[in-house]
Amino acid sequence: MRALILWIAYQAFWFACVMGAEHGWLWSSPLALACFIPLRFIIGTRTRWREDLLHMLTVGALGFLVDSGFAATGLMSYAAPWPSAALAPLWIVMIWLAFALTLRDGLGFLHERPLLAGILGAVGAPLSYLGAARGFGVVKFPLGEGAALAALAVAWFIALPAAFMLMRLSLLPARLHARHLPGAR
């Protein structure tokens, strides 16, 4: 039940970011993220905030690189392109940061299933971008919708399993530290 509630909260966050981008409100996605983070800790499992922060930053960097690549190649253009039209906009990076917080509790069943994660990423992400494009006009596909959606499918086939790998790596320092505590086995 927690996973469903978290996923609904994430969808509300996504809508806030996309609608803010539609209106050119740069402040809306950071504000939505500031509301989503504590809500995630209320709904989700209790985790160490340092691990979650590290995971957010690594997955956020992954997302920044993926979406900046799409912007730089001209496969996609984004509304509210701040700080630059050649980079992933702030609002989409905020979506990646929040998405990182859904992986453990909302999509945890994919944690040890990289092929399934890749397939779901390859299907779900293009649909999300298509919804942002058709429903809100905040994503455009200058080189054609088919090419952009195919590139998104390939990117997310790789990116979602990579995000789970980054999550495991972000947990590693805490596990290593715990082994060196007095009384730890």
Proportion in helices = over 70%
Unreliable stretches (pLDDT < 50, length at least 5) are none
Structural class: mainly alpha
| Computed Rg | 17 Å
Output the number of helix runs.
6
- Following the backbone from N to C, one meets helices and strands in this order, namely HHHEHHEH
Strand order of the largest sheet: 1-2
- Strand content is under 5%
Mean pLDDT, rounded to whole units? 87
Q: What's the main sheet like? A: 2 strands, antiparallel
Number of domains: 1
Terminal-residue CA separation: 34 Å
Shape: globular
What is the count of β-strands?
Answer: 2
Question: What topology does this entry show?
Answer:
Blueprint: H1 2-23, H2 28-43, H3 49-73, E1 77-78, H4 90-102, H5 114-136, E2 139-140, H6 145-179
Helix pairs in contact: 1-2, 1-4, 2-4, 3-4, 3-6, 5-6
Structure description:
By secondary structure, this protein is an all-alpha fold. It has one domain (about 1-175). Helix content is about 70%, strand content about 0%. It has six helices and two strands. It has helices at about 1-25, 30-45, 50-75, 90-100, 115-135, 145-180; strands at about 75-80, 140. The protein has a two-stranded antiparallel sheet with strand order 1-2. α1 runs antiparallel to α2 (about 30-45), α1 (about 1-25) runs antiparallel to α4 (about 90-100) and α5 packs across α6. The longest helix is centred in the last third of the chain and has 35 residues, at about 145-180. The radius of gyration is 17 Å and the shape is globular. The model has no long low-confidence stretch (mean pLDDT about 85). It holds the Pfam family DUF2878. Keywords: Membrane, Transmembrane, Transmembrane helix.
